């Protein structure tokens, strides 16, 4: 509860960073659990910083030894379970649950030092919460035996566990990483996770043993799904990569071909160019071409005549149920980078050459920015299509069940309530939102829901590798030698 120092930085396309100004906030003077709107003048430059500050006591974050385990005590566990019971579903909506992680040990880590050993420590990240273990020196099979407790704000967050090698004053060396979605946690079981590379797409060297316990309120978790996702404060910027670009092009191409084939199928039915494919293909053996076309026409007439708006969510619900009975899957994967330039030294044409050089460098950076933007747009488009597909594929059962529930409610609502009343209620809610809550963030509930569904790339990143199921690249190299 002291002084909060704030720095404002600017970053241009050349990756140059410059500090623009600073300001201070006295945290102790602000009231708790209340949104405080502050307009702070910057000290070393013109301009002000407009910000909202809310002080909320953070419960649940802790680091302890294995002998002092919060959820191991029956009375404390009962108290926590009662806090997140269904009776308390409408209390403190941001407090969704609690996660306890036991970091037991790692085995067969990569030797990062010249001595053939490593100085490993483990970093755990859940949303914007970061905790780490102590360092065990000169060891490839460290045993940390630490217990970490995190408050869960979003049940769709992913726990990232990264093992590093401490390297004195230098940045730590990477030794492996795993990403574990909270909804995939098996309570109270000791699990062995194969460490992956930085991209989480290939096996690395070594395994880590974790034991996790998750207690959460499903109603709070469901409501939280339709609100904006918390942005990561520390996030790696996306690098320009030929491999990622070609992968995203392929993903968009697959998505486009699926849409195109569907459109072609529908137009062929209306133009009577071909018979119904797939599901009705076997009927052609017994029926003539004219009969199939007449049946298609009759189905069209009956469907249009009897169509009601509630049938759309009903059809989507049936698609969910169908994919629940016959689930499907999908995969993808990887990353890289490029850049830089030189100087000139001459007397007569020094200014001209330097300006030419600056112009060339500017163009290189401009091209990089354009290609990077295209790469990000392609990734967003591909991810959007894959997330819709994975919602109906039951990739995350919690989200698919929630979608089915919402579609069932929408079906019943549209059946009994006229559409104009629903639009009227929705419009009143949207227009009065700022009056009811001046600091409310504009959001789209459908997009917020889809942001929680993993794309095909994320499915690969979150997939758990079994020990011995896939060889590490390092082991493959050694075996060939």
TrEMBL record:
It is a multi-pass membrane protein. Residues 335-354 are annotated as: Disordered. It is found in: Membrane. GO terms for cellular component: synaptic vesicle membrane. One of its GO terms (biological process) is regulation of neurotransmitter secretion. Belongs to the MCTP family. This is Multiple C2 and transmembrane domain-containing protein 2 isoform X7. It comes from Tursiops truncatus (Atlantic bottle-nosed dolphin).
């Amino acid at each position: 509860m002291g002084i909060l120092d704030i720095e404002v930085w600017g970053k241009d396309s050349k990756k140059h960073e410059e500090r623009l100004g600073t300001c201070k906030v006295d945290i102790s003077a602000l009231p708790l659990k209340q949104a405080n709107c502050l307009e702070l003048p910057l000290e070393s430059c013109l301009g002000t910083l407009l910000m909202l500050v809310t002080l909320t006591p953070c419960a649940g974050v802790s680091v302890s030894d294995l002998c002092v385990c919060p959820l191991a005590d029956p009375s404390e566990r009962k108290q926590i379970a009662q806090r997140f019971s269904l009776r308390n579903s409408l209390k403190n909506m941001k407090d969704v649950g609690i996660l306890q992680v036991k970091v037991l040990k790692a085995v067969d880590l990569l030797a990062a030092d010249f001595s053939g050993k490593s100085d490993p420590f483990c970093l755990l990240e859940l949303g914007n919460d970061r905790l780490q273990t102590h360092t065990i020196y000169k060891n490839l099979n460290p045993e940390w035996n630490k217990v970490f407790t995190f408050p869960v704000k979003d049940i769709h967050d992913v726990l990232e566990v990264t093992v590093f090698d401490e390297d004195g004053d230098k940045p730590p060396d990477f030794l492996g990483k795993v990403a574990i979605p909270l909804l995939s946690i098996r309570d109270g079981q000791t699990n062995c996770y194969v460490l992956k590379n930085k991209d989480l797409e290939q096996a690395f060297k070594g395994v880590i043993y974790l034991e996790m316990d998750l207690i959460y309120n499903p109603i709070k978790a469901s409501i939280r799904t339709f609100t904006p996702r918390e942005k990561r404060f520390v996030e790696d910027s996306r690098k320009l990569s030929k491999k990622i670009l070609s992968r995203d092009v392929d993903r968009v191409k697959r998505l486009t071909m699926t849409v195109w084939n569907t459109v072609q199928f529908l137009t062929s039915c209306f133009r009577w160019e071909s018979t119904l494919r797939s599901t009705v293909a076997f009927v052609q053996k017994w029926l003539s071409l004219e009969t199939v076309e007449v049946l298609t026409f009759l189905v069209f007439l009956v469907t249009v005549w009897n169509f009601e708006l509630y049938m759309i969510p009903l059809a989507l619900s049936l698609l969910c149920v169908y994919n629940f009975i016959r689930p499907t899957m999908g995969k993808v994967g990887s990353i890289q980078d490029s850049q830089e330039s030189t100087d000139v030294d001459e007397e007569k044409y020094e200014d001209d050459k330097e300006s030419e050089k600056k112009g060339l460098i500017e163009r290189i950076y401009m091209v990089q920015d354009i290609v990077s933007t295209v790469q990000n747009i392609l990734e967003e488009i591909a991810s959007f299509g894959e997330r819709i597909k994975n919602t109906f594929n039951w990739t995350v059962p919690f989200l698919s069940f929630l979608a089915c529930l919402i579609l069932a409610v929408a079906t019943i609502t549209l059946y009994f309530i006229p559409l104009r009343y629903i639009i009227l209620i929705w419009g009143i809610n949207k227009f009065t939102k700022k009056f009811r809550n001046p600091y409310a963030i504009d959001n789209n509930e459908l997009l917020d829901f889809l942001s929680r569904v993993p794309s095909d790339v994320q499915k690969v990143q979150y997939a758990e590798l079994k020990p011995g199921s896939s060889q590490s690249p390092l082991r493959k190299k050694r075996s060939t030698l």
